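User: quick one, sequence for these tokens?
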């Protein structure tokens, strides 16, 4: 048994010595360093300059005004003077309600006014005589005062009768309904013989103002500070063949919480009525140029995980810097915060492929953005 143990020790000892020799040889070898990878990149200096933005958005053209015109007095529609598609001038007759009942009411009101006037004149005469007799001490003062009261009441009745007559005259005029403005008849909803009501009102004609249309477009809230009243706009309609120059006439103060957009409007001349209300339009807005702003090339911007950043070349390292953008042009972008003038940003393909923190060297240093 002792001889077997001794034999085992004899076998293990050379192996241990051999392993020790290999470890010693490794320690004796000089250490080898892994070379650092440096990416060549193109850079551009951040500079201040002027940027002219162009915003292309879909829109539509709607009527400048639209009125749903109904009867102002109740009764049977006697005649409709227009048809769909007709163009009318302001104050042109559109339709007429049978005026006979209102003519009769006007005659009655005039008769009532005449009666009240005659009664007032009679009492005026009685009062004059009573005052003469009072001066001669023929009648009592109470009689004069009573007649004075009757005269006041008679004058009130006369005024009341006059108002009823003027209302009857107005109703007669209202039997003929006229266009409130020059426009196009887009719908005729009732014909002769229809009984028109005032409450609820019977709508007979839909009239649109089309010699000038209202261009409307929805702008993403990212451009909230870009669009201003008076900015130039160009309206293009498929099939029309002509671009229409106009300007922004109204900017909404509210942003739609669902679409994150706000509405702008512009007047679109349409004297020849070549454009139709309701058509789709492409609208290009040209905001006023912004001067003295920090600019970087668009290719320097990288968006990832909901953040907008640029890679800044700092001491041989690509440093990711969050930035807030402003106006956007075809080649350059306004940067409102995050970087300063004179810093160099990485552009080209490397701006999108280089990972933040990587070692980089300038392969080509370009001038600032156009």
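Assistant:
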């Amino acid at each position: 048994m002792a001889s077997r143990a001794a034999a085992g020790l004899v076998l293990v000892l050379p192996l241990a010595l051999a392993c020790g020799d290999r470890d010693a040889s490794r320690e004796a070898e000089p250490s080898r360093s892994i070379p650092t990878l440096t990416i060549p990149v193109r850079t551009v200096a951040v500079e201040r300059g002027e940027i002219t933005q162009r915003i292309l958005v879909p829109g539509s053209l709607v009527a400048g005004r639209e009125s749903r015109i109904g009867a102002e007095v109740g009764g049977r529609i006697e005649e409709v003077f227009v048809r769909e598609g007709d163009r009318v001038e302001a104050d042109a007759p559109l339709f007429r309600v049978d005026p006979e009942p209102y003519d009769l009411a006007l005659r009655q009101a005039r008769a009532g006014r005449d009666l009240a006037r005659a009664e007032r004149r009679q009492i005026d005469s009685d009062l004059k005589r009573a005052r003469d007799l009072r001066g001669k001490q023929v009648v009592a003062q109470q009689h004069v005062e009573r007649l004075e009261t009757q005269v006041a009441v008679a004058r009130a009745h006369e005024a009341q009768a006059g108002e009823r007559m003027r209302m009857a005259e107005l109703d007669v005029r209202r039997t003929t309904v006229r266009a409130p403005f020059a426009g196009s008849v887009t719908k005729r909803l009732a014909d002769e013989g229809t009984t028109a009501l005032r409450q609820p009102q019977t709508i007979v004609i839909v009239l649109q103002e089309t010699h000038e249309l209202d261009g409307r477009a929805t702008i993403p809230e990212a451009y909230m500070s870009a669009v201003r009243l008076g900015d130039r706009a160009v309206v293009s309609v498929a099939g029309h063949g002509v671009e229409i120059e106009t300007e922004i006439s109204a900017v909404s103060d509210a942003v739609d919480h669902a679409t994150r957009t706000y509405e702008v409007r512009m007047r679109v001349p349409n004297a020849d009525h070549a454009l139709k209300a309701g058509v789709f339009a492409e609208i290009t807005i040209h905001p006023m140029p912004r001067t003295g702003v920090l600019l970087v090339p668009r290719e320097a911007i990288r968006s990832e995980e909901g953040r907008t950043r640029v890679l800044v070349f700092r001491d041989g390292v690509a440093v990711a810097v969050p930035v807030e953008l402003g106006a956007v042009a075809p080649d350059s972008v306004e940067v409102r915060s995050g970087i300063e003038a004179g810093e160099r940003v990485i552009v080209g393909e490397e701006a999108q492929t280089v990972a933040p923190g990587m070692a980089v060297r300038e392969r080509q240093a370009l001038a600032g953005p156009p």
